[in-house]
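Team,

Forwarding the record for the chain on the shared tracking sheet. I've put the sequence and predicted structure together so nobody has to dig through attachments.
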Amino acid sequence: MAADGSTTGRAAALNSVLARPGRAARTGRFFLRRPLAAFSVGIVGILCVVAALAPAIATHDPITIYPAERLSGPSLDHFFGTDSLGRDTFSQAVYGARVSLLVGLLATALGTVAGMLLGTISAYVGGWVDTLLQQLSDAIMAIPAIIFLMLVGSVLGQGMFNVIWALALVFTPYVSRIVRGAVLSIREAPYVESARVAGAGPLRIMAVHILPNAMPLVIVTASVLVGSAMLAEGALSFLGLGIPSDDPTWKVSWGSMLSPDRLRHIEQAPWLTIYPGVALTLAVLGFNLLGDTLRDALDPRLRGT
């Protein structure tokens, strides 16, 4: 009888496990209920594929000049036409995806890591350390972001990595504020107090109990910052402080494709600004919607906020 009861219990447990929806099924239902989530993942996925395969997708070298084909309209040889120097606009847009995405990811990664460290230290240590870090953050955030980026860009000069450093400086205090608020809330949680009573040191508490619980908010914030970084790079390149349109290493970015030189030809050749403008808009929209998707998936309490 005992054996039969044990067998029946195992069978019931197995049926319960099998009845649970699989991860793929749960993921599918999540996206079916949220079409914008599927749209955002699709946009970001396509952008990543184009950026990774840019040399294979591009039909021409993006900085090679074809003088005889200046301002040519879209054709089978030049899908998006050519610019005022005869460079292939389609190839520039493809390579621009790689550069713009790289700027967005690296600037966000640097700013997020630095902001997490400063925010965690500020909230957990407190005292004069917290006051000093918050005053530094206030000083940076008091300057409008575009003005601050222009100042840093003027000092560092043009170049992709200079743009990345400038954006990381802007993002750091913003992320620091968000992480600080989360840590101040988490550090008073009962499980943190229990770990402290059990003898866990500050580093262990931060690494094991505080930062992992703050990560959902950090991930959501970072996904939105990627789109913001791409847009800011476009603004800097438009102002001549970003990535040159003939950079021998990185070729071109979407921002440099929207330079004032191209705007002079907008009536004669509207494709010069339409394609990079649409691409940049979709990329920023995709990352912003991805942030909403991650917020819903990682912290259901924040849905609809």
